[in-house]
Here is the input.
Amino acid sequence: MSQMWHTLFINEIMFWMQRIILLSDGGYAEKSWREMITSGIASDKEAQKNSLAWIREQSLDENCIESLANHDPNITPHIIQL
Here is the structure.
């Protein structure tokens, strides 16, 4: 019997109570988790929705400075201070 593994890689950088979330494949852009838009490619849409819900919840936390998706074309290089 084979198993299907679902992975989501997220880096969370924390300093005191502030944090930044760097999303690799959790969402393609901020619009993904703001509007709960799933990608067209997923082996488990329910797991993908759960991931987006978690990202959305974390990004709305007052201690989250930024949530950045690797594929977001609207992100420009910048310095983030904690």
